[in-house]
Amino acid sequence: MVVLNPFVEWLDEVAADTVVIRPDDINAEARGNLWTFALEPEQQAAVTTAEVEEFVQAVAAARARSLAECGHAMLFYCWHDVQAGQLRLSLVSPLHGRLPFACDVERVSDLNVIVRGFLQLAPFSAASPLPVWVRELP
Fold it and tell me: Does residue 2 lie in a domain region?
């Protein structure tokens, strides 16, 4: 049986995860804080853009609480991996001055751009530059 809205369960898992802080190694931070999410076709048809946006915002809030406890700022970022069909979230220290992508990145202020791609409500495209939603935490 497929749970039509897995976001509550996923949020509990992410919120309980430890934040990796390695300001000397952007790749260790990016990999250590990476979460990937994919939906089954039934789930994709059942969830709304608002539910996905709420989930991403809730993950950011949970990560912000963890970072506030340790007194460290990080960049929370979210993108749609078109090839994998996944919504991806991670954190890196702002001291790096960049995000850990080998391609051109466009920081978008509207999370809905990412969510619509993830839910396949926007045209399929391996966009260049890659749209990434970024928020500084805490």
Answer: no
Tell me which residue has tokens 């260049």: 128
The rounded distance, in Å, linking the Cα atoms of 20 and 29 is 6
Residue 60 has pLDDT above 70, yes or no: yes
Residue 41's domain comprises: 7-137
Please count the structural domains in the chain.
Answer: 1
Residue 1 lies in a domain: no
**Cα–Cα distances in angstroms (integers) from residue 61 to residues 11, 56, 82, 97, in the given order:** 10, 9, 25, 22
The answer to whether residues 37 and 86 touch, using CB atoms and an 8 Å cutoff, is yes
Other CB atoms within a 10 A radius of the CB of residue 80 amount to 23
- pLDDT tens digits along 81-95: 998 999 999 999 999
